[in-house]
Specification:
The protein is built from four helices and nine strands, in the order ββααβαββββαββ. With 172 residues, it is of the alpha/beta class. The chain has a single domain, classed as Rossmann fold, CATH 3.40.50. The strands form two sheets. The protein has a seven-stranded mixed beta sheet, with helices on both faces. The two termini are 17 Å apart.
Amino acid sequence: MNLKSLIRDIPDFPKPGILFRDITTLLCDPQGLRYTIDILAEKCGNLEMQVDCVVGMESRGFIFGAPLAYRLGSGFVPVRKKGKLPAAVHRIDYQLEYGTDSLEVHQDALTPGSRVLIVDDLIATGGTASATAKLLEKIGCELVGFGFIVELKDLQGRKHLPDVPIISLVEY
């Protein structure tokens, strides 16, 4: 299946000069969505180690992370923006092109030594994925890899990530 054909290009969004890769067209295609989860599970299942938890970043990482965790027989842990989780959290602040942001995970969601796979819909500059990896490292988790649906290669996000397997299904 050609996943790229199911991803819509939106020019000048969110601002002029940006070509947005819209996955909503992939999500509403039943065969495309099933294929995406199946192929991601196959590729991530080939990692060297068992995955205890799939970690998905807000919000599109949730869409792919939860069914992937189901397919891998793992738990799913959401990483949220600041102030969205109701219990005690671990937090990391990180730099954006235009300021700072924060990510949080419940303190009781992961334990030191947990083997985790980070999943999101897209890797661009790598900032959010890198911050998530640092947050999990702070907890003492073992990062076994990253899984992305789309990778924007020209933005070189991979160079900001730890040296673990990085899986992307579609490259632009």
